[in-house]
Amino acid sequence: MDHVSKAVQYFEKGFVCSQAVFASFAEQFGITEKQALQIGACFGGGMRKAEVCGACTGALMVLGMKYGQFDENDLESRAAQSAKASEFLDKFKNHKGSYICREILGCDISTDEGRNYARSNGLYSKYCPEMVRTAAEILTEILGGDEE
Asked: For 53-83, how does the pLDDT look when each residue is reduced to its tens digit (9 = 90+)?
């Protein structure tokens, strides 16, 4: 199963957007499904505060696994991680108009009123699967043939 289908499937099973995207790429970077789901758990819903879309943060975690700096003297990796993160966010915004959760959903899910509005109007099922799909597609494109 490809990463995009896997990400959407995780979301449809009830995992949050950040978990869905991160877990769909985890194994290729040596992280177990369980570890990826746990790491990604608190980033859904724009880090619970309707900020950066969790699908995007899940994708940024994957980019960190691939390009992230781990040696304090490796400034080349720092530049690469920054460039890849910016590329991802720019492409996502280009496709979806924003990478901010409350802008995508049209309500602030950091409040009880916003969460109730999103639930009663089916916003999570209307918008979020497409955000997960788009994030995984862009991530797949950026990783390209450079996957481990």
From this structure: 999 999 999 999 999 999 999 999 999 999 9
Q: What is the rounded CA–CA span in Å between residue 27 and residue 122? A: 32
Task: Indicate yes or no: pTM above 0.70.
Answer: yes
Long-range contacts, 39-48 (Cβ 8 Å, 24+): 40/15, 40/16, 41/16, 42/18, 43/16, 43/18, 43/19, 44/16, 44/17, 44/18, 44/19, 45/16, 45/17, 45/101, 45/109, 45/110, 46/100, 46/101, 46/102, 46/109, 46/110, 48/110
Q: Is the distance from CB of 26 to CB of 36 less than 8 angstroms?
A: yes
**Would you say how long the chain is, in residues?**
148
The two tokens of residue 28 are 């290729």
Residues 6+ apart with CB under 8 A from 11: 17, 20, 128, 129, 132
